[in-house]
Amino acid sequence: MAPKVLHLSPVDDVVVALEPLDVGDVVETPFGGQLTTRAPIALGHKLAVRPVKCGEAVQKYGFPIGVATQDIEPGEWVHTHNLRTALTEHGSYAYRPTGSPAPVLDDGLTFMGYVRPDGQVGVRNEIWILNTVGCVNKVAERLAAMADAKWRGHGVDGVYHFAHPYGCSQLGDDLTYTQSLLAGLVRHPNAAGVLVVGLGCENNRIEAFQEWLDPASLSKVSFLELQRSADEFADGMRLLEDLVERACAFDRQPVPISRLKLGLKCGGSDGLSGVTANPLVGQVADRIVARGGTALLTEVPEMFGAETVLMDRADSPETFAKIVDLIQSWKDYYTRHGQPVYENPSPGNKAGGITTLEEKSLGAVQKGGRLSRVVDVLDYGDPAVKQGLNLVSAPGNDMVSVSALAASGAQVILFTTGRGTPFGGPVPTLKIASNHPLAESKPGWIDFDAGRIVLGESMDALAEELLHKVIRVASGEELARNETSGYREIAIFKDGVTL
């Protein structure tokens, strides 16, 4: 008989319900005995297996996830009514490197990619239209539709536009964020060619934006300034035809898995995300890094409470210092705006069984695996240049953080979810369900069912299965659900004054 609950660490005060429990249900404790539930416990929620006094820490994943606000007895439901965060605005950290270097694998594993002139490798051969300013969104959208209808399947995988509202009336950091994110997308290897569309009078006019572009990227970029064009659609189609012609020169060829950059993201998490989907994705990330590849982890506010797990995996004191700066800069961001650093989890997270930000973070950082060292910390929009696990500065918001991962070079993104979302980024965005009911009810959204772990399937076997699915998607043999549905979006981080 399958177990009803799961104890994640010998020191934990709680277990996770693997099925809904009613009052009076009897479950096996991790200590060899039995206990009776004192309240209904939903799938993914927590059940106390040890007594905890008011004011004491509650342990899950082997770490504190908050402080009890009242005495908790074994068999009780543990959630927002009796558990609160213990996070504060500032922390003190010391570098305590743990574990051994990750194993290195050299088994010749490859995928079929497009090798670009700058040495990057794309997993799609697409044309992207990026606008410098939001007021030309509709022109760019229409151009993309015209070009896609004409050239999709004729040497290119599609022509896409990514709308955004920014680029004008922005000052300081906000304008920098817009330019940095768009420059990262121009640089992306999944785009064989890029048409940059501007208006002509915006802050982020084409001349200003060109200063952000790497010279190596300019060979695949054309520019269209609408105020200087008598017929923007005729001019745009001529430029796009030239980009398509150049894109047709690329063919897929075998490249080592070390050329893959994998983005890691979670959204709409539930109480099983840190039990199934996130550690599963972490195993895939470790497998890719072990073969010389790159994994990109973001959502910095959802590292709060679990940051020391990542700090202890820094490959050097210098990287450790960068992680400390990353965490503190995001805490300062919230306090600067008069907001608590722990204003998280979301209502959906809480409904799914996550109570505090510490609990959410300890589950979320598992997407970064357990073996891979943190080799670098990237500012928003910066490219990943070091092979290994990189931390990317971006918030937890799904659209903003996925866009940031793509701008840093992720060709494929693994997106774990317990609640479900149709969202897709500008690159293949594979949705990994944390629970089987979600995978069954939303087959049009979900690419992989990690809930099979609760049903008794091996984590290790599923990690190998997901790894090879990633390879098939990267090779163009399969499409992600967001691609087949046409769901592709970007969002740009904003913090500051708008004129």
From TrEMBL:
One Pfam match: SAF
Stored InterPro entries: GD_AH_C, GD_AH_second, SAF, SAF_UxaA/GarD, UxaA_altronate/galactarate_dh
CDD domains (alphabetical): SAF_AH_GD
Domain of life where this protein originates: Bacteria
Keywords: Lyase
SAF domain residues: 12-84
Keyword Lyase: yes
Family: Belongs to the UxaA family.
Name this polypeptide is given: Altronate dehydratase
Source organism (scientific name): Alicyclobacillus mali
